[in-house]
Amino acid sequence: MLLLITGLFALFLLIGLPVAFALALAAIPVFVATGTMPPTVALQKMVTATQSFPLLAVPFFILAGNLMNATGITDRLVRFARLLTGWLAGGLGQVSIVLSFMMGGISGSAVADASMEARILGPSMIAQGYSKASTAAILAFGSIITATIPPSIGLILFGFINEVSIGQLFLGGLIPGILLTLVLMGTLALVARGRGWRADTEVPSTRALWDAFVESIWALAFPVILIVGFRFGFFTATEAGVFLVFYALFIGTVIYRDLTWRKLGAALAESVSDIGMIMLLIMMAAVLGYAVTIERAPQEITEWVTSLTDDPRMILVLVVILLIVTGMFLEGAANILLVTPIVLPVLVNAGYDPVHMGILIVLLINFGGLTPPVGVIMFTVCGILDVRTGAFTRASVPFFVAMLVFLVLLAAMPWLSLVLPRALM
Fold first, then answer.
1. What are the DSSP calls for 26-78, one per residue?
2. For the whole model, what pTM was predicted?
3. Disulfide: which of 29, 121, 192, 275 matches 89 by Cβ 3.0-4.6 Å?
């Protein structure tokens, strides 16, 4: 039955069926063919999947991020990032990486960040002599940083579906996010020197840097407020989302005064679209998740993996390979909802901390989105910049290697993800 479910799911994806519907339809054999489960249970699972107070954090964070973008905060962050790193080797490329770090506290999504930067910085990078493929690679790999910085939608979904503290996940992602930013910046500096990519700006004055920082402080404070709130128990993840919506409205109407009724309507419309997509995935994944649970998939996969090896390191390697492969074919949210409830028990039984694994898993799933044949982040950037996937893959090699080194370090050094949660929570 598990093989049949997997085969149907793969078939539905190959014929171009939307992922959400492929998830639900693949579960049909369990509810119909076996004769042991009424089809009405599937409808009940769809409804009950949405009846969760912690899950309310997702729509509120999405709305808060879109409201922040509508206030013109993105333009201010671009100016600050340009002054901060535009004078380094690789100029605008460095700006895009630092911008991804700062935008992590706003967009919460690697795909959203990659799409935004491809439109804002992509044309300027190409005009300065970067090839289209190199531009796409830099922007796509930089967007992965967003997956680790609060309020990462991936970490919220992982915490919700696997019952792991979202506050600890947010804290745990900060050091890996900073380290990944430095790794990508260092890699870009080496590539830039070899290819002759010049700096974008002169070294700025202290005054100019300070003015740009002050102008961007309201956005930069976004993730800090989250961390402080979780640390001192001011709010849960859902309450934090509500607070940040009002925070974004306050910035847009009182501080910057850029939030017009038209921009508010556009932010609401975009939020409804994003929330609808994620909620549909959650509902359909709940149906398939229930089906594979009935068929004892987590237990059977655990038994199969442990029959191959009882070495925790080899178990982690097998799971890493699985997550990279599934990341090539599935959108990040669907991957988290479908795959992580199956693999996390395997890793926890092997002795790994769920917070550490949460950070690593979300990064791996997003990393899969950078690779052919169906990497979502790769296709998003390549589609906007009109780049062939073959050219993108060749231009990505230095960043691919750097990303693999970083992931190995993160897997081998749990303290990178655990030092802040253990010290502050």
1. TTHIIIIISSSS-THHHHHHHHHHH--TGGGHHHHHHHHHHHHHHTTHHHHHH
2. 0.78
3. 192
